[in-house]
C-alpha cells in the first residue's frame, strides 16, 4: 500500500483524534483516544498518548505502524503548544519519533479555526476544560494568547466555571454571598447535601479538585432557569470570549472585515441562547461585520484541512476530507471498529 500523504492530529485536553488521508482527501483510517487533563497537555506523557492514537489510526487504515514513517506529512494541532518554544520542543519530540517524513506543529486552536470556516483566516476561541484564542489575518499574520491559566491572565472554560460555582455555593451557605440554587445543586452532584462537605472532601483529597469541571452543565441549567448567580457566571464567560476575540481582531486590524469568529469546545454545546446572544452582541460592538460560527464538526477536520493546504491539495480534496470527517463518528473506537 502506498504511504498516506497526510497524518492529521487534533490533540486537546479531553480527547486525541488521529486521521490518515490520501492526497485526494480520501480518509484511510481514524482513531480517538482519551487525553489527559488540561494541565497535562504538551507533556511527554500527553505526546505518548498522541503516538498511541496514531498507531490505532494506522491499524484502522491497514498501515503497519512499525514501518515508519507512516505518512509523508504530519500536521499536529496540539494543546500545550502555546509559545514558539513549545512548538519547537514538541516538534523535536515528533522528529525523534519519526512518525512522518516531515511534520508541522500548531496550537489546537488553529484546527478549530480551519474547521469552522472555508477561509484560511479568522478568529478562533476555544472553551473546553480551559480557554484559548488565536487568529490569522488575511495577510497571514497570526496572533495567539499564551493560555497558561491564571498566570497569563486567563479566565474561562469548564474548570474556571466549576470553581466559580463551588465558590458561590460555599458563600451562599455561610452567609458571605447571595442566595443561589447552586448551594444545593453543587454538593448534590457529588453526593453531598452541603457545600462545606464537598470542600472538606476536596481538601482531604477524597474528591479530586479538577472534577469541578463536571459542574459546568449544572451552571448553565441553573442560569437557564433564572438563577441570577449562575447567570452571572455564564455572562462572565461570554464577556471573556468577547474580550479575547476583540483583542485578536484589533491586533490584526480586522475590525472592519467580515471576519469569521469560530467558537469551539464543550462550553458551546449548551446551546444557551442568552449566552450566544451576549457573545454575538458583544462582538458586534467590536466588528460590525463579524460572523459568529459555533463549530459543529470535530476539530480534526481543521487539522486535516491545514495539512491539505500545506501539501497543495486541490479544493476537491479538501471538500472530500471535510465531508468524510464531518460524517464520521469519532468515538472510543475507530472507523472500522478496530483499535
How is the secondary structure organized here?
Layout lengths: L5 E6 L3 E7 L5 E8 L9 H18 L9 E8 L5 H14 L2 E8 H9 L5 E6 L3 E6 L5 E3 L13 H17 L7 H8 L5 H9 L12 H9 L3 H24 L8 E5 L8 H14 L4 E4 L5 H11 L4 H13 L12
Parallel strand pairs: 1-4, 4-5, 6-9, 9-10
Antiparallel strand pairs: 1-2, 2-3, 6-7, 7-8
Strand portion: 15-25%
CATH superfamily of the domain at 6-108 and 297-327: ATPase, nucleotide binding domain
Order of helices and strands: EEEHEHEHEEEHHHHHEHEHH
Mean pLDDT: 92
Proportion of helical residues = 40-55%
Number of helices: 11
Described by strand count, sense and barrel closure, the largest sheet is: 5 strands, mixed
The shape is globular
- Looking at the structure, the CATH topology of the domain at 6-108 and 297-327 is Nucleotidyltransferase, domain 5
How far do the termini sit from each other?
19 Å
| CATH class placement of the domain at 6-108 and 297-327 | Alpha Beta
Structural class: alpha/beta
Strand segment tally: 10
Describe the strand arrangement of the main beta sheet, using strand numbers: 3-2-1-4-5
Radius of gyration: 21 Å
Low-confidence stretches: 331-339
Put the structure in a nutshell.
With 339 residues, the chain is an alpha/beta fold.
Amino acid at each position: 500500500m502506498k504511504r498516506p500523504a497526510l497524518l492529521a492530529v487534533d490533540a486537546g485536553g479531553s480527547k486525541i483524534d488521529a486521521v490518515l488521508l490520501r492526497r485526494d482527501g480520501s480518509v484511510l483510517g481514524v482513531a480517538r483516544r482519551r487525553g489527559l487533563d488540561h494541565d497535562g497537555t504538551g507533556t511527554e506523557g500527553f505526546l505518548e498518548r498522541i503516538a498511541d492514537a496514531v498507531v490505532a489510526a494506522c491499524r484502522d487504515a491497514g498501515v503497519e505502524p512499525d514501518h515508519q514513517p507512516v505518512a509523508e506529512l504530519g500536521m499536529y494541532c496540539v494543546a500545550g503548544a502555546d509559545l514558539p518554544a513549545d512548538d519547537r520542543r514538541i516538534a523535536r519530540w515528533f522528529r525523534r519519533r519519526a512518525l512522518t517524513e516531515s511534520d508541522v506543529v500548531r496550537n489546537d486552536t488553529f484546527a478549530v479555526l480551519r474547521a469552522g470556516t472555508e477561509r484560511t483566516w479568522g478568529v478562533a476561541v476555544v472553551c473546553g476544560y480551559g480557554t484559548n484564542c488565536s487568529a490569522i489575518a488575511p495577510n497571514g499574520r497570526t496572533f495567539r494568547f499564551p493560555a497558561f491559566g491564571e498566570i497569563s491572565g486567563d479566565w474561562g472554560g469548564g474548570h474556571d466555571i466549576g470553581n466559580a460555582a463551588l465558590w458561590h455555593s460555599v458563600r451562599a451557605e455561610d452567609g458571605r454571598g447571595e442566595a443561589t440554587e447552586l448551594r444545593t445543586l453543587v454538593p448534590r452532584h457529588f453526593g453531598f447535601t452541603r457545600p462545606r462537605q464537598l470542600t472538606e472532601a476536596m481538601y482531604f483529597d477524597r474528591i479530586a479538585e479538577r472534577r469541578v469541571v463536571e459542574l459546568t452543565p449544572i451552571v448553565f441549567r441553573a442560569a437557564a432557569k433564572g438563577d441570577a448567580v449562575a447567570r452571572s457566571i455564564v455572562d462572565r464567560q461570554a464577556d471573556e470570549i468577547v474580550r479575547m476575540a476583540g483583542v485578536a481582531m484589533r491586533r490584526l486590524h480586522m475590525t472592519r472585515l467580515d471576519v469569521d469568529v469560530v467558537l469551539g469546545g464543550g462550553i458551546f454545546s449548551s446551546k444557551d441562547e442568552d449566552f450566544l446572544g451576549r457573545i454575538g452582541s458583544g462582538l458586534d460592538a467590536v466588528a460590525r461585520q463579524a460572523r459568529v460560527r459555533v463549530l459543529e464538526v470535530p476539530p480534526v477536520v481543521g487539522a486535516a484541512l491545514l495539512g491539505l493546504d500545506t501539501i497543495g491539495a486541490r479544493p476537491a480534496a479538501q471538500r472530500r476530507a471535510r465531508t468524510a470527517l464531518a460524517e464520521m463518528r469519532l468515538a472510543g473506537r475507530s472507523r472500522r471498529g478496530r483499535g
